[in-house]
Amino acid sequence: MLLRRVREHVVAHNWFAVMIDLAIVVLGIFIGMQASLWVQARQDHETERRYLERLLGDTDANVRALEQGIAVNDRRAATLTSLAAALENKGPAPSPVTLSDVMCRWFIQPAVNVHRGTYAELVSSGRLALLRDEALRGRLALEQAAHDEAERLDNLAPAVFQAAAPLADYREWRIVAAAEGKVDCQFDVAGMRADPRIPSMVAQLYRDQVTHKTFRQRELAAVRETSARLNELLGRRPQTGR
């Protein structure tokens, strides 16, 4: 209809009417584009909020996981400190159960299951730009960097294994629950006192625990910063105790 009317106006040399018709066409196109942009913006905002919710869920889980890992590092470091004092006859040796918990499995660091799936999805899919807050994007990047640094601590494992080699001379393994496939070990603390290599070994195991704790604390601080920003953007109060 509009195109036919434009042709009629052109034939009649009614240029004013032609201009009005063209203006209506342009206005219609503009309104259509604006409506499309508005719909897309609304969809993007909804998608962004869903990602913010998921990121907040990840950070809450990561705070708990990292705090638990740090607590294990603290407990193991305290046991090693007590053992070092006992080797110098400056205090009682840790209980066999406490000593077993650390020394039988010193080479196994407490599992810290850090959730990075949502952030990895945003990066790999090219959707990171959906997060309009520049401060949040910066904190997520810092959190990823802290996580990568903590992961690289596995490179220290060979050196720690070598340092702990003398421990095998004073460790005796035994089956404690055959039905469950559980084994444990006990130590000859008296024999360890007479070996000049042992204090250095204990110190290096202690340093390993402290190193892991330090890097986990850095990652935890970064996660908490991200969590605080997410709570601000979602209009929530952060959980107490953080």
What are the key terms here?
rod-shaped, 8 helices, 242 residues, mainly alpha, 2 strands, two-stranded antiparallel ribbon
Brief synopsis:
The chain has helices spanning 2-11, 15-87, 96-103, 117-125, 134-151, 157-163, 189-193, 197-233, and strands spanning 171-177, 182-187.
Secondary-structure map:
Blueprint: H1 2-11, H2 15-87, H3 96-103, H4 117-125, H5 134-151, H6 157-163, E1 171-177, E2 182-187, H7 189-193, H8 197-233
Antiparallel strand pairs: 1-2
Describe the structure.
It is a single chain. With 242 residues, the protein is mainly alpha-helical. The chain has one domain. It has 8 helices and 2 strands; from the N terminus they run H-H-H-H-H-H-E-E-H-H. It has helices at 2-11, 15-87, 96-103, 117-125, 134-151, 157-163, 189-193, 197-233, and strands at residues 171-177, 182-187. It has a two-stranded antiparallel sheet with strand order 1-2. Helix 2 (15-87) packs antiparallel against helix 4. The chain is rod-shaped and about 115 Å long. The protein starts with a helix and ends in a 9-residue tail after the last helix. The mean pLDDT is 85.
For the record, the count of structural domains works out to 1
Q: Average pLDDT, to the nearest integer? A: 85
Q: How many angstroms separate the termini?
A: 66 Å
Tell me about the largest β-sheet: 2 strands, antiparallel
Question: Helix and strand succession?
Answer: HHHHHHEEHH
User: What form results from the Cα inertia axes?
Assistant: rod-shaped
Residue stretches low in confidence (pLDDT < 50, at least 5 long) are none
